[in-house]
Sequence to fold (694 residues):
Amino acid sequence: MRTYRYFLLLFWVGQPYPTLSTPLSKRTSGFPAKKRALELSGNSKNELNRSKRSWMWNQFFLLEEYTGSDYQYVGKLHSDQDRGDGSLKYILSGDGAGDLFIINENTGDIQATKRLDREEKPVYILRAQAINRRTGRPVEPESEFIIKIHDINDNEPIFTKEVYTATVPEMSDVGTFVVQVTATDADDPTYGNSAKVVYSILQGQPYFSVESETGIIKTALLNMDRENREQYQVVIQAKDMGGQMGGLSGTTTVNITLTDVNDNPPRFPQSSYQFKTPESSPPGTPIGRIKASDADVGENAEIEYSITDGEGLDMFDVITDQETQEGIITVKKLLDFEKKKVYTLKVEASNPHVEPRFLYLGPFKDSATVRIVVEDVDEPPVFSKLAYILQIREDAQINTTIGSVTAQDPDAARNPVKYSVDRHTDMDRIFNIDSGNGSIFTSKLLDRETLLWHNITVIATEINNPKQSSRVPLYIKVLDVNDNAPEFAEFYETFVCEKAKADQLIQTLRAVDKDDPYSGHQFSFSLAPEAASGSNFTIQDNKDNTAGILTRKNGYNRHEMSTYLLPVVISDNDYPVQSSTGTVTVRVCACDHHGNMQSCHAEALIHPTGLSTGALVAILLCIVILLVTVVLFAALRRQRKKEPLIISKEDIRDNIVSYNDEGGGEEDTQAFDIGTLRNPEAIEDSKLRRGHCA
Fold:
């Protein structure tokens, strides 16, 4: 490295006008042609007392990275007060003074002791002063000067990242932006071309290119296909000095991945598939899987399957397994080997996400033929209907045939079938079935009014294989026959006032019938023939299934006749005609002028089905008396148990103990003696012993 030396001569000038500094010559290809000096004006005697007087220094320039063995010479300081007799001393202070920069205190020569780096510190500010050695007083005011470090190209460009990662869609157009890389140079950008960086591509052509000034990487090749190659490694160089010879350089690696686009349609690896399934497979049963391959990835490789044509379009279905992207063929309806043994389907695979710009490559779908073979299985008998409904009159005799059910083996063997009734559905065994032909007949008499519908289950079983059986519900409706006579809807007991007028309505009658005729009920009411001639009342049929009881005379006397029993005949209008006779009780009562009952056998009238209030009170009173008696009796018994047997122990001769034991005579050794009677405690002990023996 060359060393440029600058010399500065300082002259003292007496004029008080401001001084100007003249820069040294700029660095060229060689040493400066001429050394230049600065002259300073002033009065040496008064210099230190004038505030605006100071030394004016030019800048010193020093190249960085000096590699010589001697100290690097910077420049020289000189005062016009220096007569060369050694009376002056030069002092240096500021950035690096005494360490990086030293001064010869006699001559004023400045030298740099170490190699300097502009990138660490480009400018040093120092202060110089000349003092009298003897007095130590300054002969010149302190003045400041600058040492600037000139740059050399000693730093290579450095990228902001050692490795860049980028992606770009496959099949992109030429010039598509990929990523931008950036390198920086620590050299001085204002001095020469040391920091001017130029980018170039070292590895990655012809696929990619880089702009020399911006570092932007772009695609350089058309139709790069991810399916052929997905990863690319590009090496970019950044070189300073504008890329000229001798410039320093740095490199970085850019890993570029081509991302997928939907540019590949699905394709079946084979044109036809074949599967087998038993005819007993229920709907939803998977039969087999087919898969079309797609070179794309992610959502671009998603596939939808559908059945577009074929004989089994309604019998089968296909669903897509989202995890494996397979098409699953499933049963849609029940199969029957005896009806059809083979089905042919056309299954299509397509991409749901299609990019329009690649449609020119062709339709993004493919199709394959699927052949499904139905296998025969031993099936249970099949009834001709899903359910049977039969009817029978309730007056049908035992062993009357109601109808029949039919079942047959659907297999080609046509095994014979036998029939039976599930007795859990016919616990009373009202019906039976012919095991050979399936005829249903009665085993007991029926009654529609007891049970209108009978729901039973019929079982059909293969004779050769009893494990193969099936069931069918059988609903039997019992039809009505007019076998029940109409009767009163309730028990009728009414009253008539003593002062009632003739043709006065005292009661409305209604009837019910357990039968249910097709045209509805039509009842007729009349007095029984034996009471029709001399009755004090008449029956008026209202022709709406009701009738009214009317008085036949004016006034009734309860003392002569307190109660009338009125027989009424009720008939229906069905075939055969059914009738019954009901009795209406009519009591004669005293009434007020409004017709309200006042006195008659009210208890029987008001409480026809219960007890009167007086009877209830009497019963409650008897219960209370009985409870009081029981409580008193219990209290007396408890009181007797507490009384002592002998009141006074001093005189027991006047006390009599009564007991119910009968003596056994002379041979009775267990009889009581007088000693026991005189000792009550012995009596108690004897009772305890007897209690243990019982």
User: Anything to note?
Assistant: The longest strand covers residues 579-591. The chain is about 10% helix and 35% strand. The radius of gyration is 67 Å.
